[in-house]
Amino acid sequence: MRKPLAWGLLCALSPCLSRGLLAQERTTVGGYGEVHYTNATGPNTPGIANLARFVVYLAHGFNDRLAFRSELEVENAKLEGGKAGGEVSLEQAYLDYRVADALTIRTGLVLAPIGIINETHEPPTFNGVGRPGFDHDVIPTTWREIGIGAVGTIPGGAGLAYRVYLVNGLKAEGFDAVEGIREGRQEGQNASFTNPSFTGRLEWARPGLKIGGSFWYGGSADTNTAVGTGTFAAPVTLLSADARFDLGALALRGVITNIRIGDAEAVNTVFGQSIGSRIAGGYLEGAYDVLHLLAPASSQRLRAFARYERYDTQADVPTGVTRDPSLARRITTMGLTYKPTWNVAFKGDYQLVRNAAGVGEYDVLSLGVGYQF
Amino acid sequence: MIALTLLLLTAQNPAAPPAKVAASIARLFGPDVRVDTLRVDSARVLRVSRGDSLLGFAQVGNVLGKDQPITFLVAIDVADRLKDVDILVYRESYGGEVAYEPWRKQFRGHVAGDSLRVGKEIRNISGATISVHAVTLAVRRMLADLTAWHRSGAIR
What we know:
heterodimer, A: 373 residues, mainly beta, Porin, 9% helix, globular, B: 156 residues, alpha+beta, 5-stranded antiparallel beta sheet, 4 helices
């Protein structure tokens, strides 16, 4: 039976449609947020309390197949004219047209489907008050760009899903040695499409298990011919793999990422930077739900976790750059996550922030709350 | 006959393409089954039989995921055991893994009153947490309804 006919019947015969879920357009509001208290060791480092994120999720279903979804974020509680700090930005804003389970066309400001945190960043979904440092300096979360792509599940029941997008490229003028490609993101603001880029992900899921592989490929020279010419000048090639295991009380997750920046020497020459030609690293995290032992009947969680991150934004350097060993970072985080419900988390952790040079090292105590709905 | 069946299914299941409901019933109960509509209050229950023997019941429902309804089907056998859950239409941007057979099969064989909790009896899938919670809760409620109606004779 052809679908249009089926839907015609549906509309004719369905009493539920008039008061139901699909005949009418539907607007949904949600959100997430997190408040942090951090206190680092060392002189002149007072404790700081910050409303790190307040995000409003707004979605609208126009009909059974076409939907709009967005996240509007306020960072650091406020913006004030003439003063530093704070940010208001769109984290996502896209239209989905669902053709079939195997194919949804997506266009707008989309999240790069890379790693774990970039797409699934609501505070109750991860341990630790702040996001991992790796998800700031290597995978620049929240990484979003404008483009068009396809998402869906691969038919056949193998448990495979994919996302592929064509998006605007990164801009090499924002790259630096400490945060890698982070400030090269354009984030939907008058984004130059000089270097269209491809990004995508394939993931495989089973109950309690998700394994994914992601990529990004695209030039970054923008209009700066001194860096390079051509669509793929100063190419950024990212490959990443991640896994999440949920074995009842025990939860394990890990990510590993490798980024190559072609023409890094030219980027450094033109912009006076000392970026690496390769950025690499990852983390491993293990968590155990203590309440599984203490109160097996409870649906609440108290996870004790430890995470070890190791990454270097100068894993390799181009000619003309001397490696800075302080960029070879090692961050150990230990803490607790208490979740009275699955979508609210109270967090506390202690971090040892170290590097291969042994300079500028410190510890941080953090407390936080996070929610999503 | 097929047209009539589809018509009935359509009337019963507003948010699901009738072909999907028919395919789901055929998968769960086998081919050549008779499907009748029973009304209980405002709900519509599909009574599935072959010849003189009752095979079970099924119901189609909707539950809100993050921003869109997830249309699903729950089927029970004559002993009120859950035969299976089917995801008929999934409209959310993330979380489609709830339609995967390895996840759905965790529900099979359970009866009303069984503990069905995410993270305990029903394992979560990272990145699909909202859908996993929504579908688990909705299945638990539908299983309880179908069982109560069957035991009270409201459906038979």
